[in-house]
Write a structure and sequence with these properties.
Blueprint (H helix, E strand, L loop, with lengths): L7 H19 L4 H22 L13 H13 L4 H21 L4 H8 L16 H8 L7 H16 L3 H5 L6 E2 L6 E5 L5 E5 L2 H14 L10 E4 L2 E4 L2 H16 L11 H14 L4 H8 L4 H8 L4 H10 L1
Antiparallel strand pairs: 1-2, 2-3, 4-5
Length: about 325
């Protein structure tokens, strides 16, 4: 499809609006997501400069040809980029060109040509999650002898019970909890500042009530999990929470051999989802709990029979 040639200034104007207005405001994406898309576009511009000799003032929409994108994929492959990374770069370019085509119909042809390029085939790997004894050992790693240990224990219980992302856990406030409802739940703020309600187990509610008595006796609006600096509560960072989990895994590994060498917060999230799946919870419920926008995201991770599940089924037969 032919289109009227766009000036270089048009390209940079579209790029600025896409990154500064459309992505963070219209689509309400997080800063990290916007930065990931921005980085992908930067990598493509780097390719244009090193391989095509196109510096900033020479870059325009003519630079986004089907041939250039295919060469870009080969260029990334030679740099030993993973298939996942390459596909993320392509997704970002497609997203940008889609926005541009919606703003200017004459650019529709460029977007259509790029969409015809197939993504790199990714090797599907089985989901890595914790065995039940490993989960129990990690959640029980901190005793109740000190206030810090009691806080850490409550934090790990919430991380598992809610299946929350580490950032969602860090963002929890007192007002996030709804413990007096008939079905107690916590409100999580996920990607794109979208909220979802996740039910809490009765046992977790009991733990939370004890935790609140000690750490939030006045029930003022504060971060749910905090550390005291200068006598004032400060929200724990995601790095601090990750360190708490790492220390718990190190402790648990001394008494439980099946605790993996590397345990991270997202593994706890996967473990919760897999535990629900193995116990017959429908995928739509798991999708809602995890805060996935697309059903394909959930099914891609969890909709397969694990060796453990197949073995159990065969033994029953």
């Amino acid at each position: 499809m032919k289109y009227k040639r766009k000036e270089t200034s048009d390209f940079w104007l579209f790029a600025r609006r896409y990154l500064h207005d459309y992505m963070p405001i219209t689509r309400n994406l997080s800063d990290k997501s916007v930065e990931a898309y921005k980085q992908s576009l930067k990598v493509y511009l780097q390719f244009l400069e090193t391989e095509k000799g196109l510096v900033n003032e020479k870059v325009n929409f003519d630079s986004f040809t089907r041939a250039n994108i295919k060469e870009f994929i080969d260029w990334l492959t030679k740099k030993n980029c993973s298939a996942k990374t390459i596909n993320l770069r392509i997704t970002a370019i497609r997203s940008f060109l889609k926005y541009c085509s919606e703003e200017d119909f004459e650019l529709r042809g460029i977007y259509t040509d790029v969409c015809s390029i197939k993504k790199v085939k990714e090797e599907k790997k089985p989901i890595v999650y914790l065995q039940s004894e490993a989960t129990s050992a990690i959640l029980a790693a901190y005793d109740t002898t000190t206030a810090k240990h009691r806080r850490n224990r409550m934090m790990l219980i919430m991380l598992y019970d809610t299946g929350a992302r580490v950032q969602e856990l860090a963002d929890m406030n007192i007002s996030s909890l709804h413990l007096r409802e008939k079905n107690p739940f916590v409100t999580l703020i996920g990607k794109g500042r979208k909220s979802r309600n996740v039910p809490l187990l009765n046992k977790t509610v009991q733990h939370l009530n004890e935790y609140l008595k000690e750490f939030h006796p006045e029930m003022n609006e504060q971060p749910l999990f905090y550390s005291l600096l200068d006598g004032k509560p400060h929200r724990l960072s995601t790095d601090s929470i990750s360190l708490v989990l790492k220390s718990a895994a190190d402790k648990a590994r001394k008494t439980c051999e099946v605790v993996p060498e590397r345990v991270h917060c997202h593994m706890i999230r996967k473990t919760k989802a897999m535990d629900l799946y193995k116990n017959g919870v429908p995928l739509p419920f798991i999708m809602q709990l995890l805060g996935h926008e697309s059903m394909s995201t959930t099914s891609g991770f969890y909709a397969f029979a694990t060796l453990e599940m197949m073995s159990d089924a065969m033994n029953k037969v």
